[in-house]
Amino acid sequence: MPELPEVEVTRRGLISHVVGRRVLHTLDHGRALRHPYPEWWELKGRRILDVQRRAKYLLICLDGGKRLVCHLGMTGHFRCLASGEDAAPHEQVCMHLDDARSLRYCDVRRFGYMALISEFELADHPWFSHLGPEPLSEEFTASWLIRCSWRRRCPIKHLVMDARVVVGVGNIYASEALFRSGIHPARRAGDVAAGDLIRLHAALREVLEEATRAGGSTIRDFMSSDGRPGYFSHAFQVYGREGEACLRCGEAIQRIVLHGRSTFFCASCQG
Ligand SMILES: [Zn+2]
Question: What is the domain range of residue 104?
């Protein structure tokens, strides 16, 4: 599943391919995504001004004030191909641009979705209205994390994956950040000391920044928008390493299931 670094890498890739281009026409291939497609005629003739990101949503900003909001679901990714090229494998949407190229949205499992939303409606839209701060922004501070964990009885891993607390921290990076800050993922959030939360705050930013720099991970079939696979997965310290030696102490990495999600940790390094 694409996590925040993959979405951010996609955004950066898209910017270089589509900003400044005008949309000639857009079509879908008739296979439903998670929500109904937007009215494609509304995009016709619009110029793409920017590509932004909020949490794991990509916002393709069009002149006239509309945003084509895209969520990549489990397996979604964008490719930029010559307009004459045949549909890419598992292509669902094709947006023809005025430079003889087209932006293709491909999604094997079709859990992704898109909508056309006015820029003024975004903040109150049900997909966005509950979202907390971006993890790499100045609004996400250690004191905010400390305040959010106050008296909370849920596991700390659950807290950092709560979009109201901080957006875009998925299963992989939650496990990684908790390992780096030496906190057991199942510990009750309200019991984690302020000093540990300060380290966790720094670790969350660190793992997300490193992953974005590395070009996103190669989990499943994520490809960056110009077709190069990312490679951050080589740098995971606990995620997917059940039974392997902890890189810090040599003990075997363990796996538990928390809230239905695989959670990897080292029992001797994370108390
Ligand atoms: Zn260890």
Answer: 4-118
